[in-house]
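Section 5.1 Outputs to date
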Amino acid sequence: MEALEDSDAIYEGNSGELLAAKKIHADKYLVVVYKEISEKDGFVITAFLSSRRKQL
């Protein structure tokens, strides 16, 4: 949940999903893909590690 609440960047996906990227190491990011239903409600679709923030 910290990656969502305190992300370094948030990107919009192609299907309305959001991608929150949180730096966890010098060259690693935790990326959480989620969908917001309302300001206070939503759900996580998946999460993964990436070293390619520019390609998100």
